[in-house]
Amino acid sequence: MVLPLLYRYSAWLVHYTMTWQRSLKLKYLKSYKMAMNTTIDLLRHGDTVGGTCFRGSTDDPLTGLGWTQLWTAVEKETFCWDHIISSPLQRCADFAQALGQRHAIPLTFDERLKEMHFGAWEGRSTEELMETNAGALQQFWADPEKYTPPDAESLTHFSTRVLLSWRDIVSRHANQNVLLITHGGVIRVLLCHLQQHPIKKLLEFEVKHAALQRIHVELAQKPDGSARLKKHA
């Protein structure tokens, strides 16, 4: 009687141990799947008709050089994008449409990714402003968070709308490779946010025409289903 009972107990113990191990493995796999990795490439538009100025929300098109700069930037990449998200201003949107059509990549436009609106400074060059508003221009360069150009969008409002768009993009495109085509100011706001750099010092970041910067976002999902930024590079 003792031996059969031992055999039964041994068989039950093996079965229980294997079941427990499978359960533990499933829990591990589930928690692993909850970690989401997203790659977002930030691409500034190319050279624009009208030359260097406070262009802001003025909707000027790309020059021939601007088109060449952008094609050169993306053709260097061996990366496959799942989605393109673009500012609707034509210096970004025209290239986004051309690239999306060429490679059959879905495209979304987001109004929140427009450049900062510069009010009375729209379309004016630095040289012009140095002649007429040198003091205001120097104050803006020193602390754009405190000093807003006349009738312009404040840096606080600008950064708020950009970061709202960023959070939506990260949330909606988890585990995807995304190309974001936008403006120098937008990219500077995002770099300040990601590197925990003071927003008033955003002009310290140099963002050239057709410059492409890659952001790796790792999200760890919370039990309530929301997500937080765990790390970036």
Report a brief summary of the structure.
The protein is α/β, with parallel strands linked by helices.
What does this structure look like?
The protein is α/β, with parallel strands linked by helices and 233 residues long. The protein has 2 domains: 1-33; 35-232, Phosphoglycerate mutase-like (Rossmann fold, 3-Layer(aba) Sandwich), CATH 3.40.50.1240. Helices cover 45% and strands 17% of the residues. It is built from 7 helices and 6 strands; from the N terminus they run αβαβαβαααβαββ. The protein has helices at residues 2-33, 64-75, 90-103, 126-132, 134-142, 155-172, 184-195, and strands spanning 35-44, 83-86, 107-109, 177-182, 212-221, 227-232. A 6-stranded mixed sheet has the order 3-2-4-1-5-6, with helices on both faces. A hairpin with a 5-residue loop joins β5 and β6 (227-232). α6 (155-172) packs across α7. The chain is globular. The model is unreliable at 24-33 and 222-233 (pLDDT under 50).
| Total individual domains | 2
CATH architecture of the largest domain: 3-Layer(aba) Sandwich
How far apart, in Å, are the first and last alpha carbons? 66 Å
Describe the strand arrangement of the main beta sheet, using strand numbers: 3-2-4-1-5-6
Low-confidence stretches: 24-33, 222-233
The CATH H-level homologous superfamily of the largest domain? Phosphoglycerate mutase-like
Quick check: average pLDDT? 85
**Shape category:** globular
Strand content: 15-25%
Q: What percent of residues adopt helix (DSSP H or I)?
A: 40-55%
Please identify the structural class as seen in this structure.
Answer: alpha/beta
What's the number of helices?
7
Task: Say what the CATH topology of the largest domain is.
Answer: Rossmann fold
String of helices and strands: HEHEHEHHHEHEE
Major sheet description: 6 strands, mixed
Radius of gyration: 25 Å
CATH class category name of the largest domain: Alpha Beta
Got a strand count? 6
